[in-house]
Structure formats: C-alpha cells, structure tokens
C-alpha cells in the first residue's frame, strides 16, 4: 500500500512546517508550496493525493488556483481549505471546484487529520 502524498499550499512558512510535521507523524508523505503557481507546478509532476490549501497568498491565491486546476480538466485531488477568511461550511461553488472540507485558521490538528482520512477514504470522517 502506498503512502498518501499531501501537498500543503500556504505562504505562511511556520504554519506549513507545523502542518507538515503533524501529517508526517500521522504517516503521510508531505510536500509544501508557497502559492498557487508553485502548487500547480508540483501537481503537474504527479503523485499528489490531496491538497491542503490556504486562500490568501501572493502570486496566485487559493480561489484562482482552484479555478485553474478545475479548467485543466484532469483528475484532480480532493482539496481541504484552511484560511483565516473562510467560513466553516463548503459552499456549492467550492464543492464544484473539488473542496471537500473547509476550516478557519488556526485549524485543530485533529480536525485536519480526521478530514484528510475521510477525504482519502481511510476512515469515517465528517468531510464538512
């Protein structure tokens, strides 16, 4: 069984590092990207099973990233949004763009781990 690979997309290096450590302890392989442009380049390399995405970033923000990813028309990984500007409910627009869960920062590590497991089909998690 292969280890799921998660891409964390956030310009906050400290938060991205904390999330990376948390997810690596849970047994996931983790990569990071500081913005949507870098994330799209990393996704083009393949092997990403899930994206944890901030919405407010330089160069390309999270919403633009989701739209570009959706326009590419290829199979896309599920996305969990964590943002200081987000609510806690996935809107129909976000759901259509592949978002399976959303939370305001700071996100509880247990919530993130549970929702990642649910999105990857690795346990009974509430993906909302």
TrEMBL record:
SMART domains: REC (SM00448). It comes from the Bacteria. Residues 5-120 form the Response regulatory domain. Pfam families: Response_reg. The keyword Disulfide bond does not apply. Keywords: Phosphoprotein. The modification 4-aspartylphosphate is found at residue 54. PANTHER family: RESPONSE REGULATORY DOMAIN-CONTAINING PROTEIN, STRESS RESPONSE REGULATOR PROTEIN 1. This is Response regulator. It comes from Qipengyuania profundimaris.
